[in-house]
Amino acid sequence: MREKTVEATVRALQRAETSLPDWVLQRIEEAMARESNPVARHHLQFMLENVSIAKSKGLPLCQDTGLTIFHVQMGRDLSLDFSLFEAIAQGVRIATKEVPLRPNAVHPQTRKNSGDNTGPGMPDVILDYVDGKGLQLTAFPKGAGSENMSLVGMLNPADDPFDFILESVAKRAANACPPLFLGIGLGGSFDLAARLAKRALLNMPGSSEEELQLLERINRLGIGPMGLGGDTTALGIKIEKAFCHTASLPVAINFQCWANRSATEVIQ
Fold first, then answer.
1. b vs e for 73-93, b when ≥16 Cβ sit within 10 Å of the residue's Cβ?
2. How far is Cα 232 from Cα 215, in angstroms, rounded to an integer?
3. pLDDT, tens digit, 9 for 90 and up, residues 78-117
4. Is the peptide bond before 21 cis (omega within 30 degrees of 0)?
């Protein structure tokens, strides 16, 4: 199963880097159909053309192929005789050469590049246990433009978290290659809120009344595609929540650009 995991990692990265999920494409198409700003409409059309060209040529649809992040769902009854992390890391090394991926993983201080997108903490593997013996791997490459705009705010319990989110998006959205997908982590601790926000991106799209109302408020900002104005500042929002301390209110916002890339492989 080790070799199957390595091969599945390469395939998942290949698909994630060169195409977008159908639901993401549908969100862009729907936004283009209702967009009233002609410049914004043109940018949305360019995005769709970009994806089409990338898929037809088998090339990455963005020059920033991102940090390698994976969501793995592993059956509790599955017994592995190898390191899952090392198998995924080996797949990343192969994909870096074959897709190809831009080497993005550097030491945080010396900035020395590992050259193969691996290193301490990389790839980032988010592991969930599920019933059964199955193994499912989702590649979720994350570029720096949107990730750099992400933040955690430690609010007072009396503060309105949605006002904080709206103000933060208003300040940062134009630098994150909008229209955006936003993962929101509400509650927990400082670090749990951030992980909730990342999981929210993985669990999109959101469709609750709360999420749709926040999406509408953000789109009324008028920031638009590429920050040049328009009706479409965000394409989707998902909120994940956890109980928090009575004296705190952590809120994390994980920005994702319009190229909300992911691909899943089931390993038999």
1. bbeeeeeeeeebeebbbbbbb
2. 10
3. 999 999 999 999 999 999 999 999 999 999 999 999 999 9
4. no
